[in-house]
Amino acid sequence: MELMQRPLVSAILAVHNGERYLAESISSVLAQTYQPVEIIVVDDGSTDSTADIARSFERVRYVYESNQGHAAAMNLGIETASGEFLAFLDADDLWVANKLELQVGYLVEHPTVDYVIAKTRNFLEPNAQLPARVTKDLLLTDSVLLSLGTLVARRATFQVTGGFDVSYAHAKDVDWFFRAKEAGLCMAVLPEVLLHRRLHGSNRSFRTRARRSDFMRALRSSIERRREEGSPQERTAGSESRASADD
Predict the structure, then answer these.
(1) Which residues contact 22 (CB under 8 A, 6 or more apart)?
(2) Kindly report the CA angle at 187 between 183 and 188, in degrees rounded to 5?
(3) Is the dihedral of CA 236, 160, 168, 213 positive or negative?
């Protein structure tokens, strides 16, 4: 993209006691080939050295809130952000260096697309055990997930959907994607792997029973809303684009 076509992107990292991996995650944002990017770290009441690590990066805007949960922290990040585009990263995951270059470029070139996601590649933290529900085949398979870590969205998208539902501990991402679909927003999926997701002993997403319960509640809520309101179908990028739709 030409320099004049490069709108500001707000990269939002919500973190609670993330001292172990936070510096790596921030560094993966700083390494982006796309600029300009503002980096917002929302500290959700950490009691470890998260604050010191975040403040050690000159370009990081550090925001603190008392512990209210991951969804509330991301909502605060959205309120704090100045960018035309919003992107999200968990404090233990890593962006590929050209993530924003590809995704923002796609959105600039396709003004009717509201948000874009991409593929995820899992990697196992050294000396960590493979989570029970993850097979070796899954570890080696690149996947298209409804993952906030791959999401880049126009700010206007959140004016339609609203923020993340703070009642969800594990399915706030799925709930948001359901609501975006119900609102008829247009999604595109890029074929590249743009997020490396770290697997380790403390992953929220592998707390299987709690996540399954949250997911089922989000699914039921989506079905009920569609029955009551007759929500429009999600629009997806056209076949002439390099993206493909994934429900």
Answers:
(1) 13, 15, 41, 50, 53, 54, 91
(2) 175
(3) negative
Q: How many Å from the N-terminal Cα to the C-terminal Cα in the chain?
A: 29
Strands of 149-240 (E only): list them. 152-154, 186-199, 235-236
CA 210 to chain CA centroid, nearest Å:
20
> What does DSSP say about strands 85-88 and 9-15: parallel, antiparallel, or unpaired?
parallel
**What's the Cα-to-Cα distance from 239 to each of 23, 104, 145, rounded to whole Å?**
39, 19, 20
Gap between the Cα atoms of 71 and 173, Å rounded: 9
pLDDT at 124: 84
* Residue 129 burial (CB count, 10 A): 11
- Cβ atoms of residues 80 and 63 within 8 Å: yes
Domains of the chain plus CATH, in order, are 3-236 (3.90.550.10)
Q: Which of 40-49, 51-60, 97-106, 120-129 has the lowest mean pLDDT?
A: 120-129
pTM greater than 0.85 (yes/no) = yes
